[in-house]
């Protein structure tokens, strides 16, 4: 599925819209923006990550970003304009911009 700024349905997603959509499919209410999602999530330590947990980032000059942890050091996210939803390894770049993890389940 393609990235679409402000998108929160299968026609296109931004990062927080993807999180909101997937959680809604499981009957869980989640705020719309990554910043609001961070503010309201139950915070968890990175060592306790489980599939379905949210990872929050503050990449330089890009504002807030959120992805869904899928296990084995990977997460799924809607990265940016012109790209599709993708599975990405939590590499040095992402850890450098990592601000915390949260859970809504």
Automatic annotation (TrEMBL):
User: Which Gene Ontology BP terms does the record give?
Assistant: proteolysis
Pfam families per UniProt:
NLPC_P60 (PF00877)
Keywords assigned: Hydrolase, Protease, Thiol protease
Q: Does the keyword rRNA-binding apply?
A: no
Q: Where is the NlpC/P60 domain?
A: 1-105
The keyword Protease is assigned to this record: yes
UniProt GO MF annotations: cysteine-type peptidase activity
Q: What family is it from?
A: Belongs to the peptidase C40 family.
Protein name, as recorded: NlpC/P60 domain-containing protein
In its UniProt entry, the species of origin is given as Methylomarinovum caldicuralii
């Amino acid at each position: 599925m393609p990235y679409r700024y402000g998108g929160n349905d299968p026609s296109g997603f931004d990062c927080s819209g993807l999180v909101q959509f997937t959680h809604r499919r499981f009957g869980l209410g989640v705020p719309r923006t990554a910043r609001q999602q961070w503010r309201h999530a139950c915070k968890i330590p990175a060592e306790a990550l489980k599939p379905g947990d949210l990872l929050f980032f503050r990449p330089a000059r890009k504002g807030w970003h959120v992805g869904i942890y899928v296990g084995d050091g990977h997460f799924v996210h809607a990265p940016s304009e012109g790209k599709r939803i993708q599975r990405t390894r939590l590499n040095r770049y992402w850890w450098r911009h990592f601000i915390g993890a949260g859970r809504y389940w």
